[in-house]
């Protein structure tokens, strides 16, 4: 009993001395988003979005909050500092609470900084325990991270954190942007193959007119966009679309929405999305197909004359969702026409995308890893140096498509015109 | 004194002005009396008194001798000698016996003050009466009744009945003891000499339990437990007739351990009724009930019950050894006894199952455990117990395994929650904010924003108030019970949150822990969960999850190194033994072939491999084909 | 708590071996192994287990022919001086091992769970709880080990399973890493990880028979080896070799990475709990083994008075290195010594037994 009392007293002493490093919830403030931009003289502009718990309550509580409901649930602070660590300390100099970075959902990197190189920004991220590999990485398209963070006003979500997580969770619904973790971003920087990539975030076209980033592939009816050209009129001006490509730690290129799909098809992460194509029989009309991957793409690689040869076999499954012409594509004979059309489009797109990747020397789909099987030891593989050989690699693409279902209509009856 | 108004006024003024001490009764102070300590008993005074008592006894013997001699002389002179021969012989024999008792050495020993209970029963009825009077402080003590009668034998025999009012059945004493002695004995014309007492008990007394007693210790325990003791003149022994018949609560429904299925009988305060209840559920000739009296001042019977052909002999012997080697003056409850016989251990965990349900005791007895019932306590103890026993309820085996297992896991889960939750909350919000989902972290932070106390203090405060409500709920008279609910729910929950003294999340937390600890069937186990909750809260506040984990680890190791009556506490998981399909989860009833292995029972098998024998046969009505 | 603290069986043996062999998987060791032999790192734990197993069998073979614990047997085979030397050698190993574990666990607590806490408090906390555990006796510790084993395995399995979306099988190729030979060498060098298994022989009289010991070692050690293999394997699968080499605490990184959905992510908390439990148990077991090995040759009637003394010695050894890298390095330098103990001791005893029997026969 005496021993027990002694132990309790000891613990109580430890507690009251306060050297155990605990923080009450009202002594910390949670950072939700970090933006990093290039500043003159090699400095960084670091933007923090801090949540304000009291406001969160006001929003969620409804009648309890009263007048608070109009207030922002978070606040944004931008600091210029030589490094992230210094910025954090400067943040602490302004905010009366200890900034807690363990709830950071996303790190947004300005395009300028991304093109300059992010090695010294990302490296420390994984060393500090409050950051983690499961944060998302965004690159501000044609703008600064600060601007993106400041203009971001989620329409439905009250919390910006929810917006980020919701966007990333629904990435698979369209395939217009990948789900890029910091982990995925960092690993290729060190590994012997693959290249870092990040989601591109940007502001929508202010006028609301469409400015496609690239021309349509023959037979395709969908426009390819980067964020600046997306015709969105109201709502949240910030959107996620496209992929930023890196080589080493420097950004070297951008994938448009359609190219991002191709990239995701290569990694096998493309879950589903609509594809609008030209009607093979009545070129004026369009057919909508709901596409998904039939299986992970089969990719095999060999080395011939010091050049990697990569064979890609993609299989797609489709479901017809709209036929405007009324042609009976549900029937097997026409069906094949449609399938061939889709395969051709996707193959062209894939080849175009891969060519672009080779051109900028970035391998986000990690095609290099398939070459690994050709080597026995780590040293041999490293000596091969896939990265320098990637632009000269031979890539053979084969696409097959199966229309599995025709939606809820089994035949299209013609619309009675006036005639 | 003239009673005019002037004097009245004068008296009135005088009453106001002159101080008079209020008339208080003189106060009683319980002081340390002279004879408080043990030492005072052996003062020289005492020796003097025993000498006086010795002399009185001798003079009484002298008077008796004198009357006998007078009688003999009269008989001789009147010539009635032959007819009175037998009587006088008997009287002389009695005198001789008494004289032997009065030898100086014995005398001084017997009459020293504290030895009354150890004295053998005297042949002199007079002596016996005096001893009883001294023992029971008669005539001050009104509970003990001494009834003097004369048996109608030839020669007439004087006798004294002693019994305790209130513990005995008066009707039975009249019909079953007094009537036969006074009427039936009278029919005998021959004198009751020689084996007088055994003849009376064999031929005259119709009572079911009649016993011969030799010392006043036995006499007292007989009287104190409601029996009637008969002293006969000239006999060096006494007869005890069972006349127990005190008022007690009848057999009732279980109040604490209610069940939806299973038997609906609970123990009451009467020991023999309780043993009877068990025996009525476990009708086996193997079931042994041993009665061991405990306590020097009040001899309380403790019944030790076990199945002779199943229970481990060493276990039974050890328990009997522990129960019989308790030296205390008074024992009033089975929980009291448990603390006297259990192993010492640092954690306040129950080591014996305490139950008010005879069916549970019966089940455990059939598994080879030992039951202990204390007279006057409506709770039986079953030993040895292990940790998981306390999460079982009586009806677990009346339900199908799926249902029973669900309930059992729920109980274990509840225990875990009720011990860990507050600590976990503190650890997470103080040290590991990253482990909480962002939405929840913000919600917690938002709820705490206006609260003026640290979170650990909030929890501590709410836990203490919850404990207050709980304790008040137990202690408050039943009629006022509903006030506790109002105070607890409205004032503490609602108002504290509204006043922003505590955050709503804490209220939810404390409510859940409180609820979870109520799910544990055994009250004492729930109590342990409540206590350890505070301990874990403390280590969590100090070191976060590291503290919580180390606290839990120490608790686990402590549990694993604990034993209950030789049985490891965490059996059958640690150490691993064959469990007989009844630990955390229980199996199908017909697959439980073995008794719990760690009990090392004499007969380890419970039922054969195939216990559903009917499955081996054809269904009824099909064998004709 | 004396020389007869209780009776133990297979289950307790399994628990003890499992817990005493596991904790290194939570420390830097997997990253070290990856740095040394790259893609094939996952083979090392299996290899070192396969090398250690014959040693245990050899020792069990010797023990089966004599009664008593390791000390008694070595006294009979090597003489009193030899037995003394062996006991002191092993006691030193266990103390050093305990010190290394204590320091690393304390340092890593600062690194992961409690960044703002003072180092002194953490190290004091760990040794305090280890001492408390030892006070409860080895029987309780062993049973707790067995009881907690499913939770530890379950926790590790949960992390491994929840990380599935991050796995990429191509991280394992080229599969030979730096070559099979180097993998074998690494496996041999790390055989000392299994030295905790010798504890069972130190406590031999409390177990039912040498066969019990063997079974316990095979299953307990085997399970722990499988778990170590799996963790390294999955670590490479998720992080790749290049990134994997960088990490200080591979398992911590694994639990950090978990992201299934908005709700199932960041399970470091689980990791911390697992890690404190295994770490504390391993320190306590090592402490107990050292105590037992010191008390036996000295014929002490009880271990208890010695507990605080050895605990203070361990703490003082643990705080010698100035920084974490030195600790890890010192740990690596300790490995050959442990391996020598792991292989040398059993071989020595087996040879002595063999020679003795030879001499007796003619």
Question: Features of this protein?
Answer:
heterotrimer; A: about 425 residues; alpha/beta; GMP Synthetase, Chain A, domain 3; 2 domains; 13 helices; B: about 625 residues; alpha+beta; 3 domains; five-stranded antiparallel beta sheet; 12 strands
Q: What would your notes on this structure say?
A:
The complex is a heterotrimer of chains A (419), B (625) and C (362). With 419 residues, chain A is α/β, with parallel strands linked by helices. Chain A has 13 helices and 14 strands. Chain A has helices at residues 2-17, 53-61, 84-94, 111-116, 119-127, 145-151, 160-169, 171-174, 182-190, 257-267, 332-360, 378-384, 386-389, and strands at 28-38, 44-51, 74-81, 98-100, 106-109, 136-140, 197-203, 238-247, 250-255, 273-278, 286-293, 298-304, 307-323, 394-405. In chain A, strands 1, 2, 3, 4, 5, 6, 7, 8 and 9 form a nine-stranded mixed beta sheet that branches. The longest helix of chain A is centred in the C-terminal third of the chain and has 29 residues, at 332-360. The termini of chain A are far apart. Chain B folds into three domains: 47-241, no CATH class; 271-385, no CATH class; 414-568, no CATH class. In chain B, helix 2 (44-78) packs antiparallel against helix 3 and helix 13 (401-430) packs across helix 18. Chain B is extended and about 120 Å long. Chain C is an all-alpha fold and 362 residues long. Chain C has a single domain (10-354), classed as Amino acid/polyamine transporter I. Chain C has 13 helices and no strands. In chain C, helix 1 crosses helix 11 (268-298) and helix 5 crosses helix 11 (268-298). The chains are: A alpha/beta (419), B alpha+beta (625), C mainly alpha (362). Chains A and C meet through helix 7, helix 9 and helix 12 of A and helix 9 and helix 10 of C.
Largest interface: B-C, 32 and 41 residues
Helices and strands of chain B, in order, run as HHHHHEEHHEHEEHEEHHEHEEHHHHHHEE
Number of strands of chain B: 12
From the spread of the alpha carbons, the general shape of chain B counts as extended
Low-confidence stretches of chain A: 58-69
DSSP, total strands of chain A: 14
Structural class of chain B: alpha+beta
Distance between the termini of chain A: 101 Å
């Amino acid at each position: 009993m005496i021993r027990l009392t002694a132990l309790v007293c000891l613990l109580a002493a430890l507690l009251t001395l306060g050297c155990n490093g605990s923080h009450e919830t009202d002594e910390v403030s949670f950072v939700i988003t970090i933006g990093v931009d290039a500043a003159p003289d090699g400095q960084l502009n670091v933007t923090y979005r801090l949540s304000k718990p009291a406001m969160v309550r006001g929003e969620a509580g409804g009648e309890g909050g009263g007048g608070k409901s109009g207030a922002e649930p978070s606040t944004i602070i931008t600091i210029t500092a030589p490094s992230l660590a210094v910025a954090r300390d400067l943040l602490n100099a302004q905010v009366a609470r200890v900034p807690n970075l363990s709830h950071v959902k996303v790190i947004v990197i300005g395009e300028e900084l991304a093109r300059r190189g992010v090695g010294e920004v990302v490296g420390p991220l994984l060393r500090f325990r409050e950051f983690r590999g499961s944060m998302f990485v965004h690159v501000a398209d044609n703008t600064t991270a600060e601007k993106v963070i400041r203009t971001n006003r989620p329409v439905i979500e009250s919390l910006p954190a929810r917006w980020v997580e919701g966007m990333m969770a629904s990435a698979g619904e369209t395939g217009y942007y990948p789900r890029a973790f910091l982990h995925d971003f960092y690993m290729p920087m060190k590994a012997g193959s693959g290249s870092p990539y990040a989601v591109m975030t940007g502001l929508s076209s202010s006028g609301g007119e469409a400015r496609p980033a690239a021309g349509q592939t023959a037979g395709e009816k969908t426009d390819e966009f980067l964020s600046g050209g997306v015709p969105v009129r109201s709502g949240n001006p910030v959107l996620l679309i496209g992929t930023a490509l890196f080589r080493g730690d420097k950004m070297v290129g951008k994938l448009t929405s359609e190219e991002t799909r191709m990239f995701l098809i290569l990694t096998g992460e493309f879950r589903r999305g609509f594809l609008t194509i030209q009607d093979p029989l009545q070129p004026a009309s369009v057919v909508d197909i709901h596409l998904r991957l039939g299986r992970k793409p089969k990719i095999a690689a060999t080395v011939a004359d010091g050049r990697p040869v990569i064979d890609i076999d993609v299989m797609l499954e489709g479901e017809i969702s709209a036929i405007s012409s009324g042609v009976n594509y549900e029937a097997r004979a026409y069906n094949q026409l449609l399938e061939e059309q889709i395969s051709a489009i996707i193959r062209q797109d894939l080849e175009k995308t891969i060519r672009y990747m080779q051109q900028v020397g970035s391998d986000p789909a990690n095609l290099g890893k398939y070459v690994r099987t050709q080597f026995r030891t780590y040293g041999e593989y490293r000596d091969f140096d896939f990265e320098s050989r990637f632009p000269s690699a031979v890539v053979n693409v084969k696409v097959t498509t199966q229309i599995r279902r025709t939606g809820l209509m089994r035949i299209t009856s013609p619309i009675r015109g006036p005639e | 004194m003239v009673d005019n108004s002037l004097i009245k006024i004068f008296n009135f003024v005088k009453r106001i002005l002159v101080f008079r001490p209020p008339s208080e009764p003189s106060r009683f102070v319980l002081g340390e009396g002279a004879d408080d300590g043990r030492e005072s008993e052996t003062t020289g005074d005492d020796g003097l008194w025993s000498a006086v008592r010795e002399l009185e006894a001798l003079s009484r013997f002298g008077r008796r001798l004198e009357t006998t001699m007078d009688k003999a002389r009269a008989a001789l002179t009147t010539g009635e000698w032959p007819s009175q021969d037998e009587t006088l012989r008997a009287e002389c024999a009695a005198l001789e016996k008494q004289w032997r008792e009065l030898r100086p050495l014995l005398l001084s020993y017997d009459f020293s003050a504290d030895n009354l209970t150890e004295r053998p029963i005297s042949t002199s009825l007079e002596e016996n009466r005096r001893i009883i009077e001294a023992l029971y402080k008669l005539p001050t003590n009104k509970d003990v009744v001494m009834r003097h009668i004369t048996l109608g034998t030839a020669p007439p025999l004087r006798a004294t009945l002693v019994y305790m009012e209130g513990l005995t059945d008066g009707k039975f004493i009249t019909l079953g003891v007094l009537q036969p002695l006074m009427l039936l004995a009278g029919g005998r014309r021959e004198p009751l000499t020689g084996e007088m007492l055994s003849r009376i008990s064999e031929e005259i007394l119709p009572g079911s339990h009649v016993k011969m007693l030799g010392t006043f210790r036995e006499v007292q325990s007989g009287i104190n437990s409601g029996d009637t003791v008969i002293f006969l003149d000239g006999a060096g022994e006494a007869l005890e007739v069972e006349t127990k018949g005190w008022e007690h609560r009848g057999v009732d429904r279980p109040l604490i351990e209610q069940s939806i299925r299973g038997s609906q009988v609970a123990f009451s305060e009467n020991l023999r009724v309780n043993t009877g209840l068990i025996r009525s559920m476990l009708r086996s000739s193997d079931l042994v009930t041993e009665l061991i009296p405990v306590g020097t001042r009040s001899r309380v019977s403790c019944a030790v019950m076990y199945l002779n052909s199943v229970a481990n002999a060493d276990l039974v012997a050890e328990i009997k050894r522990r129960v019989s080697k308790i030296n205390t003056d008074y024992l009033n409850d089975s929980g009291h006894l448990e603390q006297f016989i259990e192993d010492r251990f640092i954690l306040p965990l129950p080591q014996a199952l305490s139950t008010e349900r005879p069916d549970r005791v019966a089940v455990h007895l059939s598994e080879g455990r030992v039951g202990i019932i204390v007279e006057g306590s409506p709770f039986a103890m079953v030993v040895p117990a292990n940790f998981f026993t306390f999460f079982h309820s009586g009806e677990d085996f009346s339900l199908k395994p799926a249902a029973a297992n669900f309930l059992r896991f729920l109980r274990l889960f509840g225990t875990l929650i009720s011990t860990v939750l507050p600590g976990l909350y503190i650890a997470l919000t103080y040290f590991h904010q990253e482990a909480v989902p962002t939405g929840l972290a913000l919600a917690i932070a938002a709820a705490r924003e206006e609260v003026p106390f640290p979170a650990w203090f909030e929890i501590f405060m709410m836990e203490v108030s919850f404990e207050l409500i709980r304790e008040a709920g137990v202690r408050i008279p039943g009629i006022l019970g509903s006030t506790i609910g109002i105070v607890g729910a409205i004032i503490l929950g609602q108002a504290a949150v509204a006043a922003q003294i505590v955050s709503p999340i804490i209220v939810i937390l404390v409510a859940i822990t409180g609820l979870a600890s109520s799910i544990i069937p055994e009250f004492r186990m729930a109590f342990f969960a409540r206590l350890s909750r505070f301990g874990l809260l403390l280590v969590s506040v100090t070191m976060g999850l590291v503290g919580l984990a180390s606290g839990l680890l120490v608790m686990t190791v402590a549990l694993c190194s604990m034993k209950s009556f030789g049985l490891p506490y965490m059996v059958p998981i640690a150490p691993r033994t064959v469990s007989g399909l009844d630990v955390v989860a229980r199996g199908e009833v017909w697959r439980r072939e073995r008794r719990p292995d760690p009990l090392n029972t004499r007969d380890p098998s419970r039922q054969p491999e195939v216990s559903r024998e009917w499955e081996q046969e054809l269904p009824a009505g099909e064998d004709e084909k | 708590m004396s020389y007869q603290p209780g009776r133990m069986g297979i289950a307790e043996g399994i628990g003890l071996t499992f817990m005493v062999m596991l904790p290194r998987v939570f420390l830097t060791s997997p990253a070290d192994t990856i740095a040394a032999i790259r893609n094939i790192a996952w083979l090392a734990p299996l290899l070192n287990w396969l090398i250690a197993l014959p040693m245990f069998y050899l020792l069990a073979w010797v023990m089966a022919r004599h009664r008593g614990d390791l000390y008694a047997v070595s006294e009979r085979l090597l003489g009193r001086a030899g037995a003394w030397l062996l006991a002191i050698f092993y006691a030193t190993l266990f103390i050093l091992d305990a010190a290394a574990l204590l320091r690393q666990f304390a340092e890593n607590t600062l690194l992961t769970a409690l960044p703002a806490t003072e180092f002194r408090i953490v190290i004091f906390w760990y040794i305090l709880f280890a001492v408390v555990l030892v006070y409860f006796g080895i029987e309780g510790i062993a049973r707790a080990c067995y009881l907690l084993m499913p939770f530890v395995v379950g926790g590790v399995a949960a992390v491994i399973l929840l990380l599935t979306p991050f796995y990429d099988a191509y991280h394992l190729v080229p599969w030979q890493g730096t070559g099979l030979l180097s993998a074998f060498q690494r496996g041999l060098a790390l055989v000392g990880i299994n030295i905790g298994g010798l504890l069972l022989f130190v406590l031999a009289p409390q177990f039912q028979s040498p066969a019990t010991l063997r079974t316990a070692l095979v299953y307990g050690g085997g399970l722990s080896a499988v778990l170590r293999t799996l963790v390294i394997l999955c670590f490479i699968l998720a992080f790749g070799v290049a990134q994997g080499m960088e990490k200080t605490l591979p398992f911590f990184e694994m639990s950090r990475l978990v992201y299934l959905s908005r709700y199932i992510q960041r399970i470091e908390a689980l990791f911390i709990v697992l890690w404190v439990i295994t770490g504390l148990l391993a320190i306590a077991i090592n402490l107990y083994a050292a105590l037992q090995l010191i008390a036996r040759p000295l014929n002490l009637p009880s271990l208890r008075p010695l507990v605080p003394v050895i605990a203070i010695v361990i703490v003082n050894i643990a705080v010698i290195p100035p920084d974490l890298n030195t600790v890890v390095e010192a740990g690596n330098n300790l490995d050959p010594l442990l391996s020598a103990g792991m292989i040398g001791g059993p071989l020595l005893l087996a040879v002595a037994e063999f020679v003795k029997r030879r001499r007796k026969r003619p």
